[in-house]
Amino acid sequence: MQRKNAFVFDLDGTINHAAPLPQGLPIRGRTSNSFIDRRVIDLLLELAILTDLYVATGRSQTTVQDFKAHFKAVGLPIAGWILEHGTRAEGCPAWNKKVLAGIDLEDIHARAGRLIQEKGYGIDTEYYREVHQSILLYSGRDQDESESFLSRLSGTLNNRFRTITGSRKIVIIPKRGDKYAAFQTVFGETHSIICAAGDMPDDLTLLRHAAFPLTLRSASPLVQRYVEERGGFVAEQKGHEGTVAMLRAALDQLKKKRPMLSMLSMLPVPGPRLPVEEIECFRPSRRRLLDRLFQDTRFPEQEPDREALEQAGRQLHAGRGIIIEVRMRDWGGEAKSLCNLLKAMVLFIPYAHWRLVFRQERLGKENLKNFEAITSRLHDICALPEGGCRFSAPGVPQSPKERGASSITVLMYDHPDDMAPWYDYAVTRPVLRHPEDNGTWFVNPMFMKISSGDNLPDKNRELTSLQFAGPKVMMAANIVDDTDIQVAVQGFERLSETVDALIIAPRVVTNPQRNRKIKEATAHIGKKLSFLSQLTLTDRPQILFVDTYGDLAQLYAHCCITYLGGGFDTRKRGFDPMESLSAQVPVILGPIYNFNRIAVDSLKDTGWVHILEQEGRAVEDFVRLAQGLLKQKPPVHELQRMLQKRAWDPLRVAGELLGDLVATR
């Protein structure tokens, strides 16, 4: 069935504005009215002749009544109403029920009220309470305070909600509720989004899936940048004039495309991934909160009491009968953190058994196909003193049998989703007791990764004697997306007067689409790829493609500078710079570095780590920073000082865990 076309638009800030209009149509607000320009109504009437109109707003059934009255008075047909940030669709109770399944908003509201009273937050929870059915809308006085409130409420929200903070409002929205998801579920079988207009990050999913997205200069800068990136329309004017210009542009597009059988050919759908800042844990106000948490936290520096650790080990009979359960997301970078913790713990409880628990959906993947995938990475620490394997891994094929209940549980996560709702609570500390579950501890893998640069064995390949086209070699590691490829290849080309060769290492060497893009990018600058698996010691590659696993650490010995990929990808959240830093090679990376924020924050003011803030300027900024680093390498003592401070972290963690085991023995 040929689907019809739909124009989906937001209301406040997109259609109506606070600027007074003598002849405008008034919309009542909490403290003041806003207005719809009558020219906007005329344009919407013209658009309704060409396409069906849908409203997608954060307003509720109650607060949208002024719009409905004005639209009805002029005969403007609205085909559907999506309300409360996508949690409700008028006339579709099934969607409303699905969004709220398993959620008790009254309980969450009560808990929020108690927290506000306890902490003295200046937040009003009651003004909007009666008019919204599917979300919680509160009135705040300061965005930073709002983020602090939401952080403390995270245990209640428990990763089931997304939130919006503004200068005065706090919105708590069930995660299943989204404007585009609501449209697609309720109207998607009959309609496709030909145009979408919005002004706030909450509208981005609609704008991403529209054939022609539109916004205006008074919109969020984030929305403006995204619409420009997509090739949509951004009105030069703000407010009422911007809305008029925006709707005229939509009208022009629809008139141009009307003769076509399908109008969904204006721009690629869906558009590029959403901006970093749209993701809740990366929005500016949220990042400011995390910055403050890290700034206010004093990382431990005192050397652990080794005698006390040895005494605890004796009290625990060297770990006999103890089972330590470690929960992890996957078996990639986590192996380094676990290995460093193990090396500290087995000094005192060598007979303890370790149960490794991975997220269910990770089992059976490439790095967890069978138990050998675990033992091959832990090597000499696998065996117990009397023989037998130290580890088991439920669900992993060929794992040894389970031995009984856990004596203590270690949560070794660093992803916000895995740590929810305790990410803010634990992310700045090496080890922390769980506030609610006895015998459960957060162990921060970011600290564990820093403590040793040689914590995992490499394959038995001698790569340090390789020769390149010249002595100055640039590393581009963990390349995951188009921006990474551009920085690696174009950056290398622009540095050709000072850099002789490039090592480019994709995150996954078997990804054919990414590998093809890398090959095309190098061919575009007139260069040919050499492959590490085919290299001989007599070759002198100018661009070396790392198509093997386990060899990267040795290759850093050849390098003078590193670009670390993944820093513009919210799914990857950056990667660990420690391999490069351990080889005393400075690192340049993108703005997302949650994968090892401890190392980045500790070194970003020393010259050893530099951050590219803007994706659109990534290549230019990389070249500028690289040129400075190539002229003058940062002082080595700054790097050594950080490494020395963190060298004792595994023993510090061991002290806390052993102390808890002794106390509960």
Automatic annotation (TrEMBL):
GO cellular component: plasma membrane
GO biological process, alphabetically ordered: lipid A biosynthetic process
Gene3D superfamilies reported for this sequence: Glycogen Phosphorylase B (3.40.50.2000), HAD superfamily/HAD-like (3.40.50.1000)
Domain of life the protein comes from: Bacteria
InterPro entries xref list: HAD-like_sf (IPR036412), HAD_sf (IPR023214), Kdotransferase (IPR039901)
MF term (GO), any: transferase activity
PANTHER family, sorted: 3-DEOXY-D-MANNO-OCTULOSONIC ACID TRANSFERASE, MITOCHONDRIAL-RELATED, 3-DEOXY-MANNO-OCTULOSONATE CYTIDYLYLTRANSFERASE
Protein name: Lipid IV(A) 3-deoxy-D-manno-octulosonic acid transferase
Organism: Candidatus Electrothrix aarhusensis
